[in-house]
């Protein structure tokens, strides 16, 4: 039998002394509330980062391969899809999917207004599942016909500006010499909440852009590379750069849209500071609790020393007392924090302003390694701080301790 743990258990569960009972509840409450807040903050932050990154990646992939050129022309320089990497990307384990794209600037004109936009051409290789979460009305353009399709999807912001609805037709004048135009049919409306995309981007058939640019069938503006793991972006950039043609170069999307990723990193720093402060407060509370428990049990310490108990045994009694309170706090902290996150994930009862936060509700990411790691971190930090006040017991003299009042 572990004698220090047995005595600590009897001490913690003792019903004598309303004061110590209140101290125990305060200690458990401080740890549980602190852990719950940290769990909620980390899971929300993870969900927030994940949502922002997925929105960016769904539009642009993790990497982009384009033609290397020194030209400052507004028009894209075409590159070929007739390359070994594009046709055999499945043999590279870190690559999940590759799809072609092209961009062309133009003006959308209705009877009410004119709006400058950028049309992104996509082909049959486009993975619609990556973008499906952004589609709020309608469907994707049909791209498998013999002739190019004039169906497009526009953002909700562009649709509101031009008073467009699904099923309506609109003229688009393309910026080129000589100018050309096409009548486009709106078949879908998307919304990301990100101004970079919503204010200017529409999506249509890449074959229409190839026709307008007088490109060959295998000529595109570039192709997007999707990875299995976004954390491999840097490694994949170096590897793919060695695989593509000599006139092509590889761009990381996290560099192209750096403003979003730097903003997320800044939020990360704030969360780390926030978690550090909560850990400090929880540790300080436990030190105060153990000091109070020691002062309340001074006569017991004197008696134990009088009958021959070693200082290490007495220190372990109060260490186990604090550890038991900590474990109770961890249990209730996990229960409160995870219950709140589960309710938010299911019911989405906390809304957000999409124009400011790029999403309409507070997201949750269930990252179980983070949950387990945070619990272990709290347990280890508080356990280490518990050793500080227990050394006070080794300085007590048995006679003075027994007579302590």
Automatic annotation (TrEMBL):
For whether the record's keyword set contains Translocase, the answer is: no
Q: Does the keyword Transmembrane apply?
A: yes
Enumerate the spans annotated as MacB-like periplasmic core domain: 26-240
Q: Any stretches that span the bilayer, and where are they?
A: 26-48, 273-295, 366-392
* Alphabetical keyword list: Cell membrane, Membrane, Transmembrane, Transmembrane helix
What's the protein's topology in the membrane? Multi-pass membrane protein
Q: Name one GO biological process term.
A: lipoprotein localization to outer membrane
Task: Please report the stretch or stretches of sequence annotated as the ABC3 transporter permease C-terminal domain.
Answer: 273-398
Tell me where on the tree of life, at the top rank, the source sits: Bacteria
The entry's cellular-component GO terms read:
plasma membrane protein complex
Q: Which family does it belong to?
A: Belongs to the ABC-4 integral membrane protein family. LolC/E subfamily.
Name of the protein this chain belongs to: ABC transporter permease
Lineage runs: Bacteria, Pseudomonadati, Bacteroidota, Cytophagia, Cytophagales
